Fold Acyltransferase.
Amino acid sequence: MSKVKIGTVQMSCVKDKQENLNKAIEKIKEVAAKGAEIVCLQELFTSLYFCDVEDYNNFDLAEAIPGPSTDALSAVAKELGVVIIASLFEKRAQGLYHNTTAVIDADGTYLGKYRKMHIPDDPAFYEKFYFTPGDLGYKNFNTKFGRIGVLICWDQWYPEASRITALMGADIMFYPTAIGWATDQDEETNQDQYNAWQTIQRSHAVANGVPVVSVNRVGFEQDGAMKFWGGSFVTNAQGKLLYLASHDKEEVVVTEVDLAQTDYMRKHWPFLRDRRIETYSPITKRFIDEE
């Protein structure tokens, strides 16, 4: 299969977990009716972005994976014949939690999960309070519509993560994400931040010769202090934008991606072939001091 139809669901969330899940399911049905074969939801789509505060009560939002949400989504995937990429708050054990994405195949089979590796700790993004860094390594999943690599939000800034995921054979890389602007910032700062976010992910497509899909939430949260900037997008294997969402609207869109372009791009721009892997061992150091 050369071409695949990617469904992206950019939506706003409310406080009620079940309401968000129900809304996501309706959006999946909507995008499947438009022809989507793989549907990607945004990071932590069953809740508001709760990591703006350090509150022990928020741990109650977590669940087992597989668990109730994946069970519900598996039924939807089977009914519609679509692959679903679902980012959830995982309770692994008592006192042990992860930011995790589950992948469900088009026949409803739960294929496994990826646990977010890079965990931020910034103002209004206090994720280290909640999430243990992933310990499953980087992951690919063989689905009905292709081999997909999944990373999560803060992972998007790290070329090492995308490189390893691509080297594992991903046909396409997905980034469920949740990022936005502080509403007291000036517009120039806002645009600089968004452009950096989009550019780094498009560069992963260029460097690896694989399409990239990034799906972000939208809307005001944190009592109006944060505007999640939407801007979800799909690129081809050369980093060309095939779809770009707005900054302030919910959008349910299908974008066709040609996976065969990877072979073409890697032959004509052979960045993968020309890597000098024997010179890369220093990258495992925290910093390369002169001594």
The two ends are 52 Å apart (CA to CA). Residues 3-275 form a domain with the Nitrilase/N-carbamoyl-D-aminoacid amidohydrolase fold (CATH 3.60.110.10). Residues 9 and 252 are 5 Å apart (CA to CA). The mean pLDDT is 97.
